[in-house]
Amino acid sequence: MNRTWTMLAIGAGLWAGVAASAQAAELSLARIDCGTPPAPTIVNERFSDTFAYGDKKIQFVFSCYVIKHGDDYMLWDTGHAMTAPNVAPKVSLVETLAKIDVKPDQIKYVGISHFHADHTGQVASFPKATLLIGAKEWEAITSAHPPQGANVKPFEGWIKGDNKVEPQPLDKDVFGDGTVIMLRTPGHTPGHSSLLVKLAQMGPVILTGDAVHFRENWESDGVPAFNYDRAQSVASLQRLKKIAENLKATVIIQHDARDVEKLPVFPAFAK
Ligand SMILES: [Zn+2]
Predict the structure, then answer these.
(1) Would the pLDDT of 100 be above 60?
(2) Does 267 sit behind a cis peptide bond, omega within 30 degrees of 0 on the bond before it?
(3) Cα of 208 to ligand 1 centre, how many Å?
(4) What is the pTM of this model?
(5) How far is the CA of 117 from the centre of ligand 1 (A)?
(6) Which residue ranges form the domains of the chain, and what is each CATH number?
(7) How far is the CA of 71 from the centre of ligand 1 (A)?
(8) Within 10 Å of residue 15's Cβ, how many Cβ atoms?
(9) Which residues surround ligand 1, an ion (CB under 5 A)?
(10) pLDDT surpasses 50 at 2
(11) Residue 244 alpha carbon to ligand 1 centre in Å
(12) Nearest to residue 65, comparing CAs of 52, 53, 47, 78?
């Protein structure tokens, strides 16, 4: 190829790129209550391995998220099971989605931040969805001796091979256009992930999973007492902070009542 042709080819490639972005899929994000908040929790007891918070009490919540990308739907975390003692959601995810006329079979992807019960309780309601989960998390769930705290049962359909799973060893660009990216943020559990959603109007949003549990924990680089790997947790927290700073992203700590309110109340979607 001579120089002129090379230049033309590059020009055509750029033009195709511009044309593709002009037709970018519309993206929106909503939060859903996925458990009944417990009484405010004295966080020092379980949520600091350095006894950082004195008598401080935090109001925790349980939240799930639905992302609409063009005509495709993705769930991020599935909250507590409807049978969970004391903390079960008042309305199931399936019933909540019915309010916007979305049936379980329309959910293309269900992304799971990590294997704990308050993030995985209703995953089995979406057997047609492709499960996106960190590779190390999937290894733990499917191992002969799953670690303590791994909520294995609701993943049975995927473990048996009836449903589709795509374990992610690295970050995952979910829709291939850079708008929704699963971020590798291990530490809380071996294959923990967070989610970056680049909304057009609100700007980028980071859903932290449990890489962090509350704002004071974010500000002080705190690590909970129940945690898989301290060094990884601190590194993941640093990564999220850098991304938030570089992209001017809104950080939503999924268990912090003050943070989930940054998104409108369902059925409203942030765009
Ligand atoms: Zn957790």
Answers:
(1) yes
(2) yes
(3) 11
(4) 0.91
(5) 8
(6) 25-260 (3.60.15.10)
(7) 30
(8) 10
(9) 116, 210
(10) no
(11) 21
(12) 78
DSSP string, the chain: --HHHHHHHHHHHHHHHHHHHHTPPPEEEEEEE-S---S-EETHHHH-TT--STT-EE-B--EEEEEEETTEEEEE---S-TT-TTT--SS-HHHHHHTTT--GGGEEEEE-S-SSHHHHTTGGG-TTSEEEEEHHHHHHHHSSSPPTT---GGGHHHHHTSS-EEEESS-EETTSSSSEEEEE--SSSTT-EEEEEEETTTEEEEE-TTS--SHHHHHTT---SS-S-HHHHHHHHHHHHHHHHHHTPEEE-TTBHHHHTTSPBTT--B-
From the CA of 113, how far away is ligand 1's center (Å)?
Answer: 8
* DSSP assignments along 9-21, one per residue: HHHHHHHHHHHHH
d(CA 98, CA 94): 6
Tokens of 198: 């680049």
What does the pLDDT read at residue 22? 52
19 CA to centre of ligand 1 in angstroms: 41
**What is the Å distance from ligand 1's center to 133 Cα?**
14
Determine the distance separating the centroid of ligand 1 and the alpha carbon of 3, expressed in angstroms: 56
Of the pLDDT bands very low, low, confident and very high (cuts 50, 70, 90), residue 200 is very high
CA 14 to centroid of ligand 1, rounded, Å = 43
Q: How far is the CA of 210 from the centre of ligand 1 (A)?
A: 5
